[in-house]
Amino acid sequence: MEQKVMIKLDGLKKYFAIEKGIVKKTVTYVKAVDDITLDIHEGEIVGLVGESGSGKTTLARVILNLSKMTDGNILIDGINLATATRDDMKKLRSEIAVVFQDPASNLNPRQTVESSIMRPMVIHGVPKETAKKKARDVLDMVKMDQRYLDSYPHQLSGGQLQRIAIARALALNPRVMILDEPTSALDVSVQAQILNLLLDLQEQLQLTYLVITHDLNVIKYISDKIAVMYLGKLVEFGPAQEIVSHARHPYTKGLLDASPILDPRQRSRKKEVMRGDPGSLINIGEGCRFCDRCKYATEVCGKRTPDDTTMNEGHQVACFHPLNL
Ligand SMILES: Nc1ncnc2c1ncn2[C@@H]1O[C@H](COP(=O)(O)OP(=O)(O)OP(=O)(O)O)[C@@H](O)[C@H]1O
Ligand SMILES: [Mg+2]
Predict the structure, then answer these.
(1) Whose alpha carbon is nearest atom 2 of ligand 1?
(2) pTM of the model
């Protein structure tokens, strides 16, 4: 049976306008998310990677409706964000939850763990007694003892704070979770515990995840599918195994080669390390954005923007000269 599409992005754009000058005003645009089309199916874990500044957080914020899109369409569980009614939006706010990187920024320093977890429920009109009980349930789900209910954020470790943030995200029984660098601020040993907790919860609750990180080892460990962004564009998307073993986009290949190899037997693997830095997103024009750093680039790459091309079942790549053909 074909799985339900949980998040549908269709030609999604987010441009930031920046005004310069006092007398003679000029407007430039930062094309942080530029024409992204992508389907995330129910129960999938999609890992989103890309260097700093590639637009990952902006994409998450637009999906979460924390930031208004410039153009395109977003459908979440069949609800179109652009035409959603108030009731639709209320439903969406409980269906889609978020956990950010910095555990401290996820929680109010002056609130106890209990009131932090209860807050989204109270805002949503859940009766207080029900919310209190649910706070205990979700704390159990993230494997934290009930005695932490009265703690304040400064009394907890980074890993504990992130567990609380996850507990709070679970409070309204979401179907989708967006996790923006959920383990980047944590020690390596704690990272693995949090990732395993997230994997357990996903399986247990049949959640759909969009996990953002620039750590490819994290992505490889948890994802069913991998999406790669470069300067506002989605350059490659497909099944994780296939992307890791048969990357089609030179940028994906470069990223994979630049990540530390944990398996010593693989260390002799041929590497293709990228040169240079990603350019600027300001007033970016036509042509492939990776063109300047790509050793396969030809004339066409500088002139036209490559379309998303489907290579085979569910594997799309935006490149005029895909690898591994
Ligand atoms: N409110 C804003 N106004 C103007 N430009 C912005 C704004 N928010 C983000 N940007 C720009 O959009 C681009 C993408 O930023 P974003 O934070 O989405 O990247 P990212 O992939 O999440 O990076 P990182 O890995 O560092 O978190 C950057 O060039 C950033 O400067
Ligand atoms: Mg970010």
Answers:
(1) 16
(2) 0.92
